[in-house]
Amino acid sequence: RIVYLNGEFLPFDEARVPIMDRGFLFADGIYEVSAILGGRLVDNAAHVARLDRSLGEIGIRNPHDAAEWERLQTELMSRNGVTEGLVYMQVTRGVAERDFAFPPADTAPTVMMFTQAKTVAANPLAEKGARVVTVEDLRWKRRDIKSVALLAQVLAKQQAVEAGVSEAWMVEDGAITEGSSSTAFIIRGRTVVTRPLSTALLPGITRASVLRLAAEADLAIEERLIPVAEALEATEAFYTSASAFVMPVIEIDGRRIGDGVPGPLTRRLRELYLDIAR
Ligand code: PDD
After folding, report:
1. 36 in ligand 1 pocket by Cβ < 6 Å?
2. pLDDT in tens, 159-193
3. Is the domain of 132 the same as that of 108?
4. Where among 66, 91, 117 does a domain terminate?
5. Which one of 135, 181, 195, 207 would you pick to mutate in the ligand 1 pocket, going by the greatest count of ligand atoms within 8 A of its CB?
6. Which UniProt keywords apply (predicted)?
7. Most C-beta atoms within 10 A of its C-beta, which of 49, 96, 184, 195?
8. Are 141 and 238 found together in one domain?
């Protein structure tokens, strides 16, 4: 397995990062995940643009322009022979003596990428439908930044695993913010409902594509808060992410959604998304 680290393509075992890396000490870094399907990157321009935006928000210089990022991603995919799966990118503020404040301006960011071969299109869970539980959203106030500081999401996902379900939907002030690693949606009749963008959640790249596809399919769209009580009454529900695409939800907190099978509009949106991803 070949990974990318600071300008080099290296065997996994040879890619080492010093213990003083600020990603390790402070979670002082940004990441992105793009899907690979049929040997091509999915929605990648938007992922690379969000990486640039996240880096800018925390004052880390983006070491590469968009074209260079894509060139590096593509080379890593081909070196690993991955035609379906994920490519992970991470940039931290680099290696420096431990001090909370930023290190000297000439400190080089640490840049790392790896690929994961994985079935993302023919996912059996998408046929069956996923179950989710709601958990308290314990995160900071800048969730629009795709930071590697993911402890609250780690704890949320572990709660889901311990409940025997696939995802945790995080809740703040009685409304769903998003999934631990996905964007939450419900459907009522022919209306697709999701939370409006703000600093309270990540601006999902898949979210944006799915909203566009929903509008083109003549579904109504409401971007507003979703109270948990309303989600439990939804006719359909799903979540989106680079790794899950459009994942039907059949149960929330043990309550069956719709008929307890993936809903027809959700299935249609998944198909439409797969069509543009392919
Ligand atoms: N997670 N919200 C959160 C908190 C996320 O971590 C993610 C993605 C999303 C969906 O965003 P997008 O559609 O751009 O992937 C929403 C990635 C896949 C991860 O952490 O692995």
Report:
1. no
2. 999 999 999 999 999 999 999 999 999 999 999 99
3. no
4. 117
5. 181
6. Amino-acid biosynthesis, Aminotransferase, Branched-chain amino acid biosynthesis, Transferase
7. 184
8. yes
User: Does the pTM of the predicted model rise above 0.90?
Assistant: yes
Average pLDDT of the residues of the chain? 98
**Among 118, 128, 141, 146, the one annotated catalytic:** 146
Q: What is the CATH number of the domain that holds 271?
A: 3.20.10.10
| Mean pLDDT in residue range 41-46 | 98
Per-residue confidence band for 60, with pLDDT thresholds at 50, 70 and 90 = very high
> Quick one: pLDDT at residue 126?
97
19: pLDDT confidence band, cut at 50, 70 and 90? very high
Question: Candidates 31, 33, 90, 270: which one to mutate for ligand 1, based on the most atoms within 8 Å of Cβ?
Answer: 33
Chosen domain end from 117, 151, 175: 117
In the prediction, which pLDDT does 92 show? 98
CATH of the domain at 99: 3.30.470.10
Count: domains in the chain = 2
Predicted-complex ipTM score: 0.99
Could you tell me the residue range of the domain that residue 113 belongs to? 2-117
Instruction: Decide: 239 and 132 in contact? Cβ < 8 Å.
Output: yes
What's the CA-to-centroid distance between 104 and ligand 1, angstroms?
31
pLDDT (0 to 100) of residue 133: 98
Q: Is 146 a catalytic residue?
A: yes
Q: Check pocket membership of 209 for ligand 1, CB cut-off 6 A.
A: no
State whether 46 and 85 are in the same domain: yes
Do residue 204 and residue 269 come from a single domain?
yes
Task: Give how far Cα 277 sits from Cα of 44, 77, 153, 210, Å.
Answer: 10, 17, 27, 11
- 145 and 255 within one domain: yes
